[in-house]
Design brief:
Largest sheet: 2 strands, antiparallel
Number of strands: 2
CATH class: Mainly Alpha
Strand order of the largest sheet: 1-2
Order of helices and strands: HHHEEH
Strand content: under 5%
Number of domains: 1
Structural class: mainly alpha
Distance between the termini: 15 Å
Shape: elongated
Length: about 170
């Protein structure tokens, strides 16, 4: 049985966390807060792209993934619910952010490069509030995800946390 995730999956996992945290701390209207807004938009685009890279990488390495056994059916159901919610939000939050940005302006430059925005007549305020709410919910879910990894490590004393950490042992 494999004990660790393949290195590319680990890198994508931790890079995604980095960009999610960067997007969260630079949140706000990117058309008002220009420099932090550019960082926020870049981080959101990076999360969106990493989502697809993650899916492809998991498919490529599917036979090399560790099989950390859940302790119960309840744990397995909870794991799958959290996993698919996290994955859905990795896709949905950047899309809502892009739709919000497109509704706020006709032209947005990301470090001097014009972003191809979409023309929309949607309720930008509602989409923006949904983007913000889901971003906050996502951060809470990430916290629970990290807490679960620590519980697995310190209480259940299994391999779940170590399987996503790169150490030679």
């Amino acid at each position: 049985m494999k004990k660790k995730y393949p290195l590319p999956i680990m890198i994508i996992h931790w890079l995604t966390l980095l960009f999610v945290m960067l997007a969260y701390i630079t949140g706000g209207d990117p058309t008002v807060h220009l420099k932090s807004g550019e960082i926020h938009v870049l981080a959101g685009i990076s999360v969106f792209l990493l989502f697809f890279i993650r899916i492809i990488t998991i498919f490529i390495y599917r036979k090399d993934l560790p099989l950390n056994k859940p302790l119960s059916k309840y744990q397995k159901k909870l794991f799958l619910m959290v996993k698919y919610t996290l994955y859905s939000l990795l896709f949905l939050i950047p899309v809502l952010g892009f739709c919000t940005l497109s509704g706020l302006t006709d032209n947005y430059q990301l470090f001097g490069i014009n972003l191809p925005l979409i023309s929309n007549s949607w309720d930008t305020e509602k989409i923006g509030k949904t983007h913000e709410f889901l971003g906050n919910f996502f951060m809470v879910l990430i916290g629970f995800h990290a807490l679960a990894a620590l519980i697995h490590h310190y209480v259940f004393k299994d391999n779940v946390l170590k399987s996503m950490l790169y150490f030679k042992k």
